[in-house]
Amino acid sequence: MAVANKVLEEALTLPTQERARLAAELIASLDEGEDADVEQAWAVEIQRRAEELRSGKVEAVSWEEVRERLLRRLARS
Fold it and tell me: pLDDT tens, 27-63?
């Protein structure tokens, strides 16, 4: 654990962009490999959602609106 603490201490001195890249690389390293079934399920889901948008069955919501809804919901909790 001492090595990890030393690495963390040094990493925290890096500029923001370098810390972000390092964090992304560390997170990616935790992925134990792709699961073909999961990848296929996501591909199907993405297609379904895209078709709903194209057909007008659903309407896109801006990030600002989603954020406002979340903040209101959190305020009520």
Answer: 988 877 777 788 899 999 999 999 999 999 999 999 9
Can you list the alpha helix ranges (DSSP code H) found in the chain?
2-11, 16-29, 36-55, 63-76
Per-residue buried b or exposed e for 11-37, using 16+ beta carbons within 10 Å of the residue's own CB? eeeeeeeeeeeeeeeeeeeeeeeeeee
Rounded distance between C-alpha atoms, residue 30 and residue 33, angstroms = 9
Q: What are the tokens at 70?
A: 């979340």
Positive or negative torsion for Cα 14, 5, 23, 29: positive
Q: How much is the pLDDT for 32?
A: 74
Answer for the pair 11, 22: CB distance below 8 angstroms, yes or no. Answer: yes
User: How many domains does the chain divide into?
Assistant: 2
**Residue-range definition of the domain harbouring residue 21:** 1-33
